[in-house]
Amino acid sequence: MGTLSPDSPWTIWVIFSPLAGAVFTFLWPRRARLAVPLVALGTVGSVACLVWQVAELGVQSHALGGWAAPLGINLYADGLSAMMLLTTALVGAAVTFYATEYFRRASETARYFWPLWLCLWTALNALFLSWDIFNLYVAFELLGLAAIALVALAGSADALTGAMRYLLVSLLGSLTYLLGVALFYSTYGTLDIGLLGDLTAPSAASWAATGLMVAGLLLKTALFPLHFWLPPAHAAAPTPVSAILSALVVKASFYLLLRLWLEVFPVTAAGLGHLLGLLGALAIVWGSLQALRQTRLKLLVAYSTVAQLGYLFLAFPLALSPVAATAWSASVFFILSHALAKAAMFLAAGNILRFAGHDRIAELGRAPYGVSLSWAAFGVAGISIIGLPPSVGFAAKWLQLEAALAGGQWWWTLPIVGGGLLATAYVFKIISCVFSQNGRTSGTNGISWRMEWTAFGLSLAALGIGFAAPQLLALLNSGTPLALHEVGSAP
Amino acid sequence: MMLSQMITIVLLLAGAAFFLAGTLGLLRFPDVYTRLHALTKADNVGLGLVAAGLAIQAETWAAMGKMALIWLLVLLASATGAHLVARGALRRGIPPWTAR
Amino acid sequence: MDGAVNAAAWAFDALLVLTLLWLAWRVLMGPDLFKSIVFFIAFGLVMALAWVRLRAPDVALAEAAIGAGLTGALFLAALSRLAAGERIANAKRPVENSDTGKSTRPHRGVRMVFIAMSALFFGGLAAALLSLPAEAPGLTIQVAENLSTSGVSNPVTAVLLNFRGYDTLLEMGVLFLAVVAAWSLTPAPKEPVSPPGIVLASFVRVLSPMLLLAAGYLLWAGTHAPGGAFQAGSVLAAAAVLLLLSGKDMKANWPEWPLRVVLGLGLGVFIAIGLVMMLIGHRFLEYPLDYAGDLILLIEVAATLSIGVTLAALFLGGRPQRDERK
Amino acid sequence: MTAFYLGLASFLLLNLAAGMWRILRGPSEADRMLAAQLFGTTAVAILLLLAEAMGQPALRDVSLVFALLAAVTVVAFVRRAWRPATEEHSNDA
Amino acid sequence: MNAAMLYALTGAGLFALGLYALAVQAHLLRKIIAFNVMGSGAFLVLGALAHRAPDQVADPVPHAMVITGIVVAVSATAFALVLMLRVQSETGQPHLPEQPSD
């Protein structure tokens, strides 16, 4: 598990630079234009230092308040958290750069966008580092409220109804999760994930707690039957918020499910794993078909999120085979690739929407020339969503196919490959608009080069990081007990 | 059974009787204004008696003082509440009950 | 004599539980919305009694101040703004009759399914709860051992502000976020300003200082007896709510920038103290032994002010008007 | 003595339950709000009894908070949630 | 079946009642009230199980968790009420519109 070097300060700076930034931008809104780049740089810098420390020295931890595990709260940064922090930092920095431009004219909303977004960034970093299940509940609530407030920032009727539906789902998920925390604490007398991992044994109470927690987390990750709230909320939100929601916020609850599945839940039953895999496969098919049916661009991209989330859940049944490590690494790679590609797609779609004034796919053909770079970004991001080499998406799908075949569960290859084909269908449905020559250029010129280059940069990153796959794999395995969870070996 | 405990029991029982009267009044009386009487007067006297009964058992003078303060605050709150509700009801045209 | 005490205790608990469940049923299923809210206020009161029976005076204080007092006032204010909104909506399209919160229920079959599902949920949860051992120490021993070095003698305050101080910091973040979110959504709705009348005005003038005194007392008592920042903050908020309700225009005589500073104060002081601890070589939020009590008190004072103003701003329901002109 | 205190507290809780019937049936909203105020006073009495019965003097602070906040909901009702006369009777018909 | 378990079962009952009301009621204010009742139920479960500690002193850690939970619940409720009023001002009715397409 790597050396446990105590009390790295970087874990603190990663959480408290965005939080301090949020308080600052709320107190002095007019000086936000200067403060936000500084805060973003500070956060990305501390994330980089922390990731470097985890890669070199192994797991980093920080006993908050100086109290040891059962009484106090620990922060714990291992390979998995480092990967998630890295993804959040990359997408977060890009979206911050984009948002400074996007909100240039709408100063009223910008005044409240910055504190809310920096609070959301804090909640994400706190969630990825916390090692205490009740602390995760509070970070979860902070994350949910910040995301909902950002969706409601758009102010339109369907943004507000989408935000309200998202709030009801988020509160229900958090309360169910809290009930699971209550049961685990009452059974084992501790809230620390590490200690719980050693103590949990299959019993009525721990099964009920597992069920409650899984149900709460599935609701917030919008897995197939419970995905109804995601498309309206993600599509109606302002563009940078849609990118943040689809790329990062939905992944946070999946990360929590993965962390608890690896560390805390008593011997994971094959049945539950296969159920999650089945729901994941259904999500891929249903999400892609719905995406094909959509008439509006942002809704199509939102349904594509529902589909791509299905891939993450395929890892649960695949991990019940001797090649568990490959399956888990595949889903973490998926998180990275989908985060980068989906953020690029939403930013590109936002540019097109702002330029053409509407996002009805049928009439998009007339406005390809004004925002050609955004169309290119959409296409390149599509490559990563479909999973063509050399993108990270391809690396993830390759690992998943490898895990499926090596683990003897060949049937899981069907949704993987099928999903890729369906993704090709709905990506080309959009790209085809560019080649239909029935258009004269129309639309305002509200697009600055910054907004277009951010989208294009992110899509290139989704493509380019595929080359860094081995280093990322090494980072992921430093300290994360991925390999430990073969079938039958007690955690 | 010490004398003080006897007094406490008597006071508490009297307090309970007033609370009972208050609740009966609240259920039986015909309109808002009469129920206000029952509620505000009976319950506050009931609370006063209960507080007095418990004050005898209180270990320090400070505890006694605190109970008296609590009783005064409740008096203040329910008197204001009663006035506001009555005035509001009158202004909203709820007719006071008159024996036919 | 012991048997009688147990019997009386059991009778009181059983009665309290029945009242609680019956109140919850009336709150959730009652046809009229106003009746539900009044039942909800009663539900909060009985819930505080339940916390008292569970030997949790701190939680009873929080439930009494926040659950019964503030949440009830929030719902009543929301109901009046809802009715006002409905009148505007009706004016625009006086077509179908506006329901005043009549609970529109899906038809019978769907309700049966939901009843079965929640009954199943309750059954599973009850089975899990009953399987738990009757006696479980939890973390009582660890807290008792370390209480002496925590700087306060009330175990709950020690856990809240020292052992699990990071939880409380994130929770202050949630409160701060709620205000920022509420301000980002809408300007404060204009309330029908009517003169409070002599009785209410004098009542508020007499009660407000007492509320402030009580908040200070709860804050100070928090170190050695039930009380603390949250309970004191909510009593402070009750004072502010009373002032708002009695027609005092808080917004006018309260300049906008200091209001923002006080809103961010609790969180800012907490983070600052945590980081200062790191600068002097300790871990984050690790108070030096002999200053622990004073630092906790400093955090609690800032937190009380911040929570009081935050809950009052949330009762206001939006960003203050003066904020508009910026 | 503790049994006596707890018995009395149970009796007051019954009073509380009886008050709820007024909330259910109360013709006008004012009646309902009255019952809520009844709850406040009775709850303070119950708390004082429990403080004595459970030997926890700290419970008196809880009843102090109850006493202070009993007024908040009633004032909120009178100043905000009391709808003008015309509508009131219609919804209680 | 001691007092702690009685209150824990009541908490579970409140949670189930709230869940049912949340599913059945359409009015948004009723849903927010249902969330408050569910929250109180979950906290009651947590607090009641803390009462099982020996020799008449309850475990302070769940009490701290419940106080944190109550404050989080009141801030979520306040935000939900403001959002509900905004939904009503935009769509004219305090209900969520029927979901057009799944």
Helical amount of chain D: over 70%
Alpha-carbon distance between the two ends of chain D:
48 Å
Main sheet specs of chain D: none
Strand segment tally of chain D: 0
Structural commentary:
The complex is a heteropentamer of chains A (491), B (100), C (326), D (93) and E (102). With 491 residues, chain A is mostly helical. Helices cover 73% and strands 2% of the residues of chain A. Chain A is globular. A two-stranded antiparallel ribbon of chain A has the order 1-2. In chain C, helix 7 (165-185) packs parallel to helix 11 and helix 8 (197-221) runs antiparallel to helix 9. Chain C has 326 residues and is an all-alpha fold. Chain C is globular and about 65 Å long. Chain D has one domain (2-92). Chain D has helices at residues 2-25, 29-53, 59-81, 85-92. Chain E has one domain (3-91): Orthogonal Bundle (Helix Hairpins), CATH 1.10.287.3510. Chain E has helices at residues 3-24, 28-50, 60-91. In chain E, helix 1 packs antiparallel against helix 2 and helix 2 (28-50) packs antiparallel against helix 3 (60-91). The longest helix of chain E is centred in the C-terminal third of the chain and has 32 residues, at 60-91. Chains in contact: A-C, A-E, B-C, B-D, C-D, C-E. Chains C and E meet through helix 1, helix 2, helix 3, helix 4 and helix 6 of C and helix 1, helix 2 and helix 3 of E.
Summarize the structure.
The complex is a heteropentamer of chains A (491), B (100), C (326), D (93) and E (102). Chain D is mostly helical.
